[in-house]
């Protein structure tokens, strides 16, 4: 785990526990790497609902309600996967990964094309990344970005639980 990942996972763990959040992930591109890193967070069994790795489109459609015909490497797919994961895990926040790790282009998308979807109960969206490097670097950078995105959304999520201390000196 990189220093940035460790810091973000520590922060995510702290915020999720103090705010009683339930976190989930859906992974197509990252093969469980995102769940592996998040699951190492302190007290993960109390706030990390889990993750699902789904590569095949029919699995995404069946388990996560991906609409037929949606490009599996797209913002729309990433958002639908995050919303599907949010529902599947009854989570407060879900992040999904999809894209082309490389080294070759896939379905007209260059290597390093990555979409991160995110969802909460009242909003959803995506981030597009165009990453350089080989497959290992693309996957590592995607995991870093996914952890960071979860931490950002946890930081913005609702008021602190009654009696909880302010986190790192600021309230959201």
List the SSEs and their pairings.
Elements: H1 3-19, E1 23-27, H2 33-38, H3 44-47, E2 48-53, H4 57-64, H5 75-88, E3 93-99, E4 113-120, E5 124-130, H6 135-156
Unreliable stretches (pLDDT < 50, length at least 5) are 162-172
* Tally of separate helices: 6
Instruction: Please give the largest β-sheet.
Output: 5 strands, mixed
Strand order of the largest sheet: 2-1-3-4-5
Q: Distance N terminus to C terminus?
A: 27 Å
* Shape estimate: globular
Query: What is the CATH top level name?
Result: Alpha Beta
* Helix/strand structural class: alpha/beta
What is the radius of gyration computed over CA atoms, rounded to a whole number of angstroms? 16 Å
Supply the CATH architecture. Answer: Alpha-Beta Complex
Order of helices and strands: HEHHEHHEEEH
Question: How many domains make up the 3D coordinates?
Answer: 1
Mean pLDDT over the residues: 91
Strand fraction equals 15-25%
CATH fold-level topology:
Maf protein
Q: Output the CATH homologous superfamily.
A: CinA-like
Work out the helicity level.
Answer: 40-55%
Q: Could you tell me the number of beta strands?
A: 5
Outline the structure in words.
By secondary structure, this protein is of the alpha/beta class. The protein has one domain: Maf protein. The protein contains 6 helices and 5 strands, in the order αβααβααβββα. The chain has a 5-stranded mixed β-sheet. The longest helix is centred in the last third of the chain and has 22 residues, at 135-156. The protein is globular, with a radius of gyration of 16 Å.
